[in-house]
Every structure is written in structure tokens, then in C-alpha cells.
Design goal:
single chain; about 475 residues; Aspartate Aminotransferase, domain 2; 7-stranded mixed β-sheet; 3-stranded antiparallel β-sheet; 15 helices; 12 strands; PyrdxlP-dep_Trfase_major; carbon-sulfur lyase activity; Aminotrans_V_dom; PyrdxlP-dep_Trfase; pyridoxal phosphate
Amino acid sequence: MDAPRDDHRLSENRNGNGCGEADGRLSKRPRPHPAPISAAEIVEEFSHNDPAVARVNNGSFGCCPASVLAAQLRWQRLFLRQPDEFYFSSLHPSLTRSRSLVLELINAAHLDEVSLVDNATTAAAIIFQHVAWSFIEGAFNPGDAVVMLHYAYGAVKRSIHAYVTRAGGHVVEVPLPFPLSSPDEVVAEFRRTLGLCRAGGRRVRLAVIDHITSMPCVVIPVKELTRICREEGVDQVFVDGAHSIGNVEVDVQDIGADFYTSNLHKWLFCPSSVAFLHTRGSSAAAPRLHHPVVSHEYGNGLPLESGWIGNRDYTPQLVVPAVVEFVERFEGGLEGIRRRNHEKVVEMGKMLAEFWGTFLGCPPEMSCSMIMVGLPGCLGISSETDAMKLRALLRDEFKIEVPIHYQSPPKDGEAAGATDESGATVTGYARISHQVYNVENDYCRLRDAVHKLVRDGFSCIQSTERVPSKVKDG
């Protein structure tokens, strides 16, 4: 269902669904401070998780507690009860309420800077569509460049090529070493790549910087890279923080990028799928951004365009108040959750590395609620297909869900690769996550499963099991 903008009615919500004030302003009433959530209550909130599976892969799909799912169901029933009233009376003020809460979480300067979209991939398409139009309309010159990290998320890479390359732009990748020992290595490669663009006479129109790379997982110094972009004359900076909100601190004013996106369903406990796109108000591109699905709100600003794209399920975007209530049940709120997740995943990563005789893929300060742990070299991971094969084996035989990253060994003439305690080159890494529902036994099961494979002489090179269809991790 589409409806013209003139029919919107921003009336006060009278349905008791926790939407807050009709115009989206946050309530000034003091909030109660009950006792922190108990371990038993956490188990109950996530009782829908399969108890047989050690899920140390929150990063791919996130998780949603039962109380938030219940809030979503109330919104869905409200829509079904009287769809017209929902669309014309409740939807927009309730979206505004959610956007207002996101504004506080990310320290945005103004509500008009915050749009809610389906996911970070949608946000990327909005930005790259704008870049493509800039080439087509002659604002950018053929051969001008877009710079991205080598470890940018695969779907985002494809989106860049789909929009930018076809419009006449040139794509440049920043090579990044892995494993890493310091953020300085990232900064040095980024500076070097921008220098090569400058020396080659290419003007960099957009830099795409991951806040947290997906595979391998590394926290990138986005504030410093954004500052370097300003120094080097890069037109615009887009930070892909798909994993960021609820995982690391996100302060969009401090980072200073033109555009910033993050999923709310990965680490902020929202149901799938919802993300925000922040557009800095001072960016010249802000008025020229449009949702790729064109509907009646086209031309009225991205927040309104994104909030009215036909008859669809908007409830993942409406439960942000319920999510905020959930995280406030934890000691220290969201910051406390982030801190404890980080501390625990580092502890578990070190435990696994010590047991397997390997190492962490980056120092703890470059990790978040996810960390990379080297796997024993004798497992013989020699391709991405092998990594998927091992992942499927752990899922099917051991009921453990964990992403596996393949890191190609050094080529002739390059520095020697990292080795395990036996001297074998490490070419595989497990990306482990920690979220509030995880327990130590989840990681012990992974530890013991890999130990059994090593003890039994398993090798991907010798394995002839069926290889599953390739699945990209988020």
C-alpha cells in the first residue's frame, strides 16, 4: 500500500504500545531502576535458541530476546487490527520515536540526519546510487576513484562495482595484512593507497571504510582514517559499521564521516531486519540521497522516503524502545554489555589459542565482541571451500556454529606466514563471538571438537565430504 504524503496524520498514539510521545521526543519521566537481569532471566529471554547448538556466531544474524519479539507481535497485531489507522496515525510518529532513540545512541546532531532502512546493504546501495548518479550527471569525471578496504564485506564490494564501475568510476582496494599486530599497519596501508591514487592523477570521490571488518574480524581506526581522508582531499567518507552499534562505541560526530550505517539486528537485539543510516547535515550530498525503492515520499528527504516504501512489515523498526528497555535491565546498560562481551570473548579466544597452540589474529584492543583465533595448521585449510567444509563439519557433527576464515599463505618472496607451535603455517581462523546468552561451555565444546579432529588426523586436503553451498557471513 502506498499513500500520498498529504494523508499522513501525526496523531497521538493511544494504543499503549510503548511508542512514547507522538512527535518522537523522548519522555522526561524518570525511569525505574529494577534489579539487574538475572542469569535465569537471560536464559528465558533466549529460550527460543536451539539448546543443542553451541552458537558462537552472533555476528552473522544477531539475536532477539523474547520480550522484544513480544513487542513486535503487539505491533503486528495492531497493524492487522486496523491497517488504515496504523499507517495514517501510528506509523510515522512511532518511527520518529525509534529514530530519536537511535540519535541518542549514536550522538547524532539532529533527527533529520537519521534514517531507518532494512540493513546496512540497503544503506550502501543508497550511497553508491548517489555516487553513480554523480558520474552519470557529470559531477564526477570518468576514472575518478572510490577506495575501499580489501576486507570490505562481499555484498558491499559487489554493490560498489554494480553502481560505481558501471557508471564510469574506478575502484581501488586498500590491501590489509592479516594477522595484525597494530592499528598502525592499517593506517600505513591506507595512506599508501591514497598516495598511489594521487600519484596516478585519480581524484578519490568516496572512501568506504569498515568500522569492523567481517572476515577476518578487525576493529578499524575509523576516526583516524576519516581524518586522513580530509587531509588528502577525499570528497566523502562512508563508514560501513554493519557490526558496530551494540558492539563498540559509535559516536558519529566524533568520527566525522559523511555517512555511517549500522545494523540494529546484529548486536542491538532488534529482530531482522533494521539498520540506521546517518547522513551528516553539513554534507552537500545529504539532499541528493534517495531510497532505491521510489514511493510517494520521494523528494521529501531520506528519513521520510525510507519510512514509507509501501505495504511491508515495519515492526523491526518500531521495537527500538523495547530494545532500549531490555538493555537497561543489564548492569551498565549497553556500555556494560559491550564491555563484558569484549572481555569474555578475549578470555575465550586466549583459552582456545593456548589449547590449540596458536594465537589471536589481532591484539585485544583491535577486537570487539568477536575475535579471530588461529586454527592448527595440520587441519589443512587451503581454500575458502575448505573453510566452508570445516564449518559444515563442526555444525553437522558437533552442533557448533562458528565461521571459519581462510587466509592464504604468503607467496614466494613474501615474509613467512604465522605458524602454530608445531611450526605449521596457520591458514584457518575461527571467528568467535560472545553475546549475553553465551556460556563458557560453548567455547569448551569448540575447543574439544577441534582437538578431536586434530587427534583423529582430520585434514581438509584428504576429506572428500560434500561441500555445502557457500554462505557469506555478515
